[in-house]
Each structure stands twice: as structure tokens, then as C-alpha cells.
């Protein structure tokens, strides 16, 4: 409708503007506004309000400020509603600084901001991380006689939480509680999310329980957040309780199941993962590709690759297309089980179906080859992967450095470390630890210490693995003063020594035939509540037998069984070696019988030691019988076995004179 046909006065024009906005005809409203300006019509606050409302309704709050400035620039004085509307629009961007400026103008114009205005500006300040201004506005609001509402308090709590100041947030909870204001679902959701984010899983769980006591029903997002926080810290009992409550309440969704499924899989709990999968199907929860990936991870983690491949086939039957993560999980599983052909076949299949390898896929292949000691293949494949567009990262170099370090190829490992530096790829604690461990294994503790100093200068703190490498290295050298200084340093940096650390020290003392010092560490472990494991007992029993103290060794063996630790092949091998070395052949032979009873297959070394022991005593008949028994068990004699049988020597020492050899 042409403007000339409208009645005189701004009111008719504003009515038409409002009509356009009401039916979402924003383009027509803007055209009408421009015509009004072009004709030199006197605009008023109502015009401004309508156009700002149009901007908010259309989802273009940034344009509202332009209309506000245009109208005010034409001499129109804004009223309280106009100020409220523009503040609302500016805060939606959010542009807290501009909102605060307009709020000041509003007060200077003689208008008292409403509670809504303060809530809006405080919210914008919090969104932009400006907690100082948010708190200032809260104090100003209270001075003007407006009450502290739950909305304002909850918004400020969110501000505290975003800053990581949980104490400030909970202090505000106490304040409103004293005022008789009860937190609502939103309040609890904000606090729980913050607790989960800052690793306060127990506090998050307590808040969850408080909600239930107050008659509130935590939604699935809150439940999932608390479950994840508890899972991060292995609180399985509470997690399973939450899960059961979520299922009973009917709020558990596929994400709830997937979170729990992932952690079962990651923790190697295959049986529990399969039971959860069955429960999903029973409840009618459709597994997603993430669900399949999680269960695949569980099978691969335990090396059940046939089951993993079977599940992979079922995905296609269900119409779920595998993604790059699916293939990567399977490839990683095959590589860790040294099924290299199958892993690379899967990689080829990915290419056939048009799925490109990602960084994790390439790294799984490189890492698997390095762990298996196939360093030349790993290097060659890395070159091929680069041609495909793969850019090596820290993890890639860590795999290569670790592989070469474990094979005592320290010059090559060091060259990759230097290459990382040249290419601007940051080294992390794992990088340094691999090199430190390699140098310690190569008896180059001086170079290991230089790397340790370099690592610390870069701001990296050593972890348990790094300390263990150094302690083991210095123990191997017999330098216990330095080894113990690192043990003390661990406590100073807040690290608790593990059984692995103590085992390294005990092993060092055992090799130095200082069993008193080894047992002092054994007592210290017990005092500090560190659980003794099978390697701990193996080291001590081995040392006691070598020292000729069979009674103490037997007592410790009994304690080991009573504590729930089971001897392994290493334990039995060490016991056999020590007993044979001391001439206790019957005791050593009983160890062989114990291995059979435990369902463990003795290795060639165990038989070699026993055969050598009987040959040394001239009991060739028993020695040959053990050789036949070894063959019956499918064990293949090695060069040492033939040295014993043919040359009648074990190592460099012959057992008997040539004249005494059997014919």
C-alpha cells in the first residue's frame, strides 16, 4: 500500500510496520521503514521498538543496534521499553560491553532498569567471561532494591564455574539457601557439569543424590555427565547404580549405553560389554556405529579377532556403514596381535570403499610394526604413507623412537628425535621416556640424565615410567645412591612409587647379593600399603634361594599364594635356575611338577637347567628322560640343549672329564 493512501500521522505507519512483523514479512517492514525515512517522516519510539522487535524475531539482533542508533540520531528520545529492547538485542550477540554502555545511558535518562534488564546484562557478561562486571551489576541491582532471584544467582554460579571457581559457586549456593531460595534443575545441572569438568566426581555424585532427595528427576544429560566423571576414576559400583536408575526411570538413551559400553571395552571387560549389548537389544535401543565400534574395541582388546570380524560383518547386515574409526579399531587389533597381512588387507578394503585413512589409522599401522620390531618395514611404510598425504605427528615419532630404543639402536632413535625438532614436531614426556629408557638399557645413564635435564627444562614433568627407567638403569649399574635419590624425588613431586619401581630396586639389590636391603624395601611397601605383585615375590624368592635360604624362600612362596598372587613362568624359571645353581635338583624338579599342576608349560630354559643339573651329577638317564619329555610336550630344543647333550657342557664349563663320558 503506497504511503500517500495511509491516514496522516506516524501511528498508521507504525500499525502497518507491526502488521508486517506480525506475519514475519520482515523484508516488507524494512522497505516500509526506508520509505518513511525517505519521505522525511518523524519517527518515534514505537517505530524503533517495532524494528528492533523485527530484528530479534528474525534472529538478526546485530541489526537492532543500527535501527536504535538511526532513530535516536534523528532526535527521538528513547523510552524505557526502547532501552529494554535494545539491551535485549545487544545481549543476544552477546556484546556485554555495549550492553553496559546502553544501561548507563538508560539510567542517565532517568529510567530505572527492571530486574529483567539486569538479568539480561548479567547473563551477557557471564557468557563473555566477564564475571567482575556481572558481580558489580548484581550488587547495583540489590542497591536499587531489586531482589536476588534464583535466575541471577544461577547465572552467576555459571560465571564462577566457567572461571573454574567452584568454591565461589558453592558459596553462592549457601547464600541463596540461607535466603530460603531453593536451587532448581538448572542450578544443579550447571554445578554438576562444572564438577565433572574439573574432576570433582564425588561432589557431582553428591549433587545428583541431593537432586533426588529434593524430589527432582535428573535428566539424561545430567546422569550421563555424572556417569562419565565416575567412570574416569573407576567408580564402577556407583556408575552401575546410576545406570540402573536411568534404565528404570526410562531416560537411558543410546549415549548412556555407549558411554558405559566404551568404558567396559576400554577396561577389557568383554563379558560385561556383551551383557550390556544384549540389554540394549532387549530394551529396543538401536545400536549406532559408535556402539559397534565400542564392542569391536572390547573384542580386539582381548585379542578375540574372530569375534570382532564377525561383529564387523553384522554391521553391514544391519545396514550400518563402518566409518574410519571402525576400520582403525580392527586394524589396531590385528597389528597388536601381529596379524599384519589382515591389517593391511583391511587398509586396502578401506581404499576400495572410498574411506580415507586418518592419523590414527596410519599411527596404528606404524606402531604395530615398531612394537613387533619390524623397524625397516615401519620406516618404508612411513615413506609410502607420506606420499598419501600423511603428516607424521608426535605419536608417530614416539613409536619409531621406542622401537629403535628397545633394539639398542640409539643412534637411529636419536636421529629421529633430532628430526622431530627440525620439523617443529613437539616432543612429549613419552618421547623423552623412550629415549631415557633406551639409554639406560644401553648403560648410557649419563646421556639419559642429559635428556632428563632437557625434558625438565622444557617444562615436562617426569611420570612413573620415566622414573622407573632411570631407577632401573642406575640399579643395573649398581649406583643405588642415585637410584634412591630419584625415589625420594618422586615423593617430592607428588608421585607415589608403584610396585614396578620397588621391584626394580629389589632386583638391583638382589643382583648385588644384598638381600637385607631388598627386604627393607619389601617391608616399606607393606607399610605404605603398596600391593606386592608376582614380580616382587619372584625377585625375593630368587634371591633367597641363591643365598641358600630355602626355608625363608619357602615361607615367602606360601605368603605369595595366600596373597592371591599366582606364580607365572618367570617365577618358576627363576626358582628352577636358583635351585639348580645351588644343587637342589629334587626341589627344582618339584617346581617342574608344580608348573604342570598350574597348567603352565615349562619353557626350553627350564628343561635345559634341569638336564644340565642331572648331567652335572652324572645322572644321564634322568637328563635324557627330561629331554624326551620336552619333545613330547612339543618344545623344540635349542643350541644350548644340544651343547648339553652332545658336548656335555652348559655354558663354558664341561660337566665331566672325557674319560667319564657315557658311551
From TrEMBL:
The keyword Translocase does not apply. GO terms for molecular function: mRNA binding. It comes from the Eukaryota. PPR repeats lie at residues 44-78, 79-113, 114-148, 149-183, 184-218, 253-287, 288-322, 323-357, 358-392, 393-427, 428-462, 463-497, 498-532, 533-567, 568-602, 603-637. Keywords: Repeat. InterPro entries: Mito_RNA-Proc/Resp (IPR051240), PPR_rpt (IPR002885), TPR-like_helical_dom_sf (IPR011990). The keyword Repeat applies. Pfam families: PPR, PPR_1, PPR_2, PPR_3. This is Pentatricopeptide repeat-containing protein.
